[in-house]
Write a structure and sequence with these properties.
binds adenosine-5'-diphosphate, elongated, 5 helices, binds magnesium ion, mainly alpha
Length: 151
Amino acid sequence: MSNVIVITSGKGGTGKTSFAANVGMALAQMGHPTLCLDCDVGLRNLDIALCMTDRAVMDFTDVLSGRCTLNWDVRCPTEKVGDFDVECAREFWLGFARSVPATLHFVQFAGGNSHHILEACWKGMARALAAAVQVDQAHRDEIPSTKGLLV
Ligand SMILES: Nc1ncnc2c1ncn2[C@@H]1O[C@H](COP(=O)(O)OP(=O)(O)O)[C@@H](O)[C@H]1O
Ligand SMILES: [Mg+2]
């Protein structure tokens, strides 16, 4: 059973973000799966309060409008891996993101071998997708989606 807590006021600077960050953190620390959604389109700053600015790559308007993007920060040192054109990897995942639809981020932290780098992209995404569709045994009968459906 999930609960929705709405924190709102007609005035800016009244402490909504601070309250949301602290209550959200407290609930998470108590073991409740917690989603904090900043609905301030113009001045989103919950990510700053939670020290997650570097990880805030989209806002809720991206979700509502179904915008999907590919962040491809992958640098392969060669143009080919065998017969495979390395530049096709980005095109493949862009097509995938648009078809799902989903927003995907591939960020390369290390690696100097094109074969291994691309292999890690496919394996990493496979693991992420497997985790995303896994049934949470604690919430078997619920749909784990803010949209209330999975497509
Ligand atoms: N309980 C509080 N006491 C004093 N200052 C606060 C309190 N809650 C928030 N603030 C400060 O007020 C400012 C606005 O808070 P913020 O949470 O960003 O408000 P809002 O999201 O409503 O615009 C921030 O500088 C914040 O540090
Ligand atoms: Mg705010």
